[in-house]
Design goal:
about 110 residues; alpha+beta; 2 domains; three-stranded antiparallel beta sheet; two-stranded antiparallel ribbon
Amino acid sequence: MKRRVKDFVDIADQISLDELIEKLAELRESLADPSEAELRLRGDEVFGHRITISYFREQTDEEAEIEKRYAEAAKEAKERELERLQAELGVVCYAAPGKRGKLRIVA
């Protein structure tokens, strides 16, 4: 199952109005529906201003594979850390039946 990811497009503050309108129209036509696009003005006087358009898109197969790999690694790391802490404390946690998955601690 793919999920949607948020993507960003930045437009510099030194652009003509015609170019801005053209870029925005081109971007709008390229977005899949529903993209929930938002436009914001970001920045300040020191670093400059930019227009940022954020929108949702479907995750690519490559992004999904990378996320899956890291999610599995993170899950394994959490399990190892939990086992280490339980061994260190001499405490065992398990899901109590009928308690909506709440953990029960036995010392």
